[in-house]
Each structure stands twice: as C-alpha cells, then as structure tokens.
Amino acid sequence: MPNKTPHPLIAVIPIVALIAMLAVVLTIFNSDAISGGSQVALIFASAVCITIAMAKYKVKWKDFEHQFQKTFGEISVTLVILLCVGMLAGSWMISGVVPTLIYYGIQILSPSFFLVSACVISAFVSLLSGSSWTTIATIGVALLGIGQALGISEAWTAGAIISGAYFGDKMSPLSDTTILASSTVRVDLFTHIRYMMYTTFPSFGLTLVIFLVAGFCFDSAAEINVDHFVNGLEAKFNISLWTLLVPLLTGILIARRVPSLITLFASSVAAGVMALIFQPDILHEIAGQESKDVLSTIQGLMVMLFGQTHIDMGDASLNDLVATRGMAGMLNTIWLIICAMLFGSVMIASRMVQSITKVIIRMAKSRTSLVGATASSGVFLNAVTGDQFLSIVLTADLFKHAYEKNGYEPRLLSRTAEDSATVTSVLIPWNTCGMTQAAVLGVPTLVYLPFCFFNILSPLMSVIVAASGWKIKKNVQPE
User: Of 250, 430, 466, 471, which residue is 20 to 30 A from 108 by alpha carbon distance?
Assistant: First the structure.
C-alpha cells in the first residue's frame, strides 16, 4: 500500500471521470447502458485511478493485485448466487409457481391496499430469511406480477418490495449485513438490532403511510385487468395449488437457516420437478421441437434454467409477464459487478477513498454532523466501491476513532452504518445490490429509486434522531 495519501482534489478525479463517462453512456445507450457501456466507463475510470496512483504516488502494481484478489474473493459467492437467482426466476415462472401466485393473488389483494401489503409481505419474508436478495428473487417477483395485473406501476411495486425487503434484512439477526455491522464495531448483535429500532421503525412507519395513501391512486380499470390476467393465465398454465409446495419448501429451508446458495438451488430443482408434472406442454414449446419426446422435455428444462423463454399467451402484456431470462439474463449484471469491483479495488488500494472520507470526518464538529458525515460516507462508499459489504466495513473503520474520541457509544456507529451503507446500496445503479435487483425485477434502478421510500428515509432519519439526541449517550457502556 502507498505510504502517502493522495490529496482530496486528486482523489476525486477518477470519480469525476466515472460520472462524466457514465453520463455519456446513458445519453447514448439509455436503458441498454449495462450491456457494455457502463462496464467500459468503469474500466476506464479504474485506469485513470491507477495511472495517477502509480505515476504520482508510486503505488506498486502488486498493491492493486492484492486488493483485486481480496475483493474478488469476497464477491465470488455472490456471483454464483446471482446465477442461481436466474435459475430460480426461470423455474418458478415456467413451473407455474409464479403464475399460480399471481392467479390467486390478484383475486385476493385489493388494488388500494396492494402496495402496503407488498411492503409488509416482503418485510416479513426478509425478516425470517435474513436476505433481501432471496426475498426479492422469490416472493418479490410474484408480487411484481400481481401488481402488473392490478394495473399498478412497476416502479411503485418495485419500490414497495425493495423497501420491505431491506427493512427485514436490516432487522433480522440472520442477515449478513446486520452481523457484519455489529461485529465490525464490536457491538453485541441484539444490542445493535434493538438500537436500530429507534431509527428503523419510524422510517418504516412513514414508508407504510406513503404506500397506503398512494394505493388509492391505483384503483382504475382494476376489474378489467384482473379478468384479463386470470383468464389468460388459466388458458395457458396448469394452475394448481400443488405448485405452491415449492415456496413452502423454500420457506422451510430458510427457517432451518440453510445457506442462501443451497436454498436457491434446491428451490430451482423443486420447481423443475413441478414443471415436468404440471407444465409439460410449455416445456415442449420452449424447446421449439415438433416432437414431444424425452429429449425435447430435457431441452425445455435446460432452456428454462439458463436461457430466455418466450411463451405465446396471445397477448403482449401477458407475454411480457411470463417471459424469463434464466442464468443468461444475469450475465450482464455479473459483468457489471466485476467492473464495479475493479473500480472499488483500485480506489481503495490507492487510498483515494480514505483521502476523501478524511475530509468528511474533519467537517464533523458536533453529534449531528458526525452522524451526518457517517451516513454520507456510507452512501458515498456504496457509489465508489460498488459493494455494501465494503461500504459497511470502510465506514466503520474510518469513523471508529472519531466516535471513540468524542465519547459516543459504538452502537451509534454500527446503527448509522446500517442506516446508510446497507439500505442505500440498492439505489446505486452500479452497486452489486442495485444491479442485482434491477435485473431480477426487470425494473431499472433509476426507475424504482424514487419509490424506495424506506431506503431514502433511513439515512435521513438517522441524522434527525441524532439531532434530537434521543437514546444517545456518551461515555457509558451500551445497554
């Protein structure tokens, strides 16, 4: 690692370069930006950082290589999980799991209360599983389809799903980010969770009120949409409650704390079995073969898991609803994650991230400004490093001394790191979370961002509570 920390004005050059290149990419490619343009921008911004660090600050190439190996080692499991998420999305749709959930869901859920219901359901599932990713990839996909059938904007529905999923992820003792934030600052896990309630519950409460009020704006033409989707799904799929054994199995695996990777794979296999039993005709249609033999069935199963599927439902909106992309649909996301991790690695190895955050720390003169600086750094690091885990660790490490020096409890730091780094990761288009959820839900990050009210309110609430001084003590041991 270099001995000298770059000047902050030098450290922001790669970030300015990245923003400028991304602006050009978005102007040229629009929604296709993640198909290659954004990746090129991240690689060139990384090259700018490396050039400055090696030429001006004599950073050795081996320092960059060491950080590459460390960072990519940390995200390797994430990349495999993404492939399994692609398998699960394809298998749950083609097997009839998602169509069955949509079929019954649109007849049970009221359009007026759908958004608040989607948020609460996602929160409950995420709280039990400890994983926002698993929640969004399973029940989230089904809820998005239900919302579409009810005539509700995909952006609003995605915002409700993500808000609920990240609330549950943040408050669950099974969550990786919750455990990481508490352990990094050396705070007892349940002390950390209890302390988060003072900022998290008000944010979630306001979020539910917003979705409840907004829900009454999505009531028009609901009956027509319901009949249209119910009849269309029933005509093509074998709608059966037996297919719901798959989400039941998934729930059991989650309750037994089976690792996410195993749970996603097992759920995909179970859905494949259901596809063989209930949707053989659709498998043959996917295979595109005239003969309906064993090989055609196997081909349909394979395509369901790894490739794009297009089922002729006789209606464009229904065709879009049941279309899937499988593992292949995750490749652009994985490609973008790798490039984002490259940029984050070189910014850390060159100490440019540390240089910028030190400026933020020096500006923190009071309790409110210290918490505000911590929250701002969490958001900033999500944008620079492209990964919420790196953001949590760096935020905690960079501010630990400042909190100790000012006599504040470590649980205040762990809470603020979660209020910012954990929940805002999904709002950054090139962050692993933002890229993943956009790919899984099929809604671009910048489209759903304005409606992720919980994720937006959380860092603001952290600063507001700090300003009030509620439950913030100095020079005492945590409860």
Answer: 250
Place of tokens 């009020």: 213
Alpha helices, DSSP H, located in 290-419: 294-306, 316-322, 331-349, 352-362, 367-385, 388-405, 410-417
Alpha-helical (H) ranges within 95-113 are 97-108
Q: Is the dihedral of CA 101, 104, 106, 108 positive or negative?
A: negative
Q: What is the pLDDT of residues 242-253, one digit of tens each?
A: 999 998 998 888
For 386-444, where are the alpha helices, taking DSSP H only?
388-405, 410-417, 423-424, 432-441
Q: Are 420 and 378 a contacting pair, CB within 8 Å?
A: yes
Check pLDDT > 70 for residue 166: yes
pTM of the predicted structure, to 2 decimals: 0.75
Give 224-236 pLDDT, tens digit per residue.
567 777 888 888 8
Residue type, 398: L
Q: Are 116 and 160 a contacting pair, CB within 8 Å?
A: yes
- What are the pLDDT digits (tens) for 416-473? 999 999 999 999 988 888 988 998 898 999 999 999 999 999 999 999 999 998 888 7
Share of the chain above pLDDT 70, in %: 95
* Widest Cα–Cα separation across the chain: 76
Q: Write out the two tokens for 313.
A: 């439902």
Please state, in angstroms and rounded to a whole number, the distance separating the CA atoms of residues 417 and 454: 15
Backbone φ and ψ for 363, nearest 5 degrees, come out as -80, -10
Rounded CA-CA distance 463/104 in Å is 42
Residues 6+ apart with CB under 8 A from 267: 88, 91, 92, 138, 246, 247, 249, 250, 253
97-108 vs 141-149: helix axis angle to the nearest 10?
50
Are 250 and 131 in contact, with CB atoms under 8 Å apart? no
| Amino acid at residue number 243 | T
Task: State the CB neighbour count (10 A cutoff) for residue 9.
Answer: 10
Contact 139, 121 (CB under 8 A): yes
Crossing angle of helices 141-149 and 432-441, in 10° steps, is 50
Single-letter code of the amino acid located at 405: K
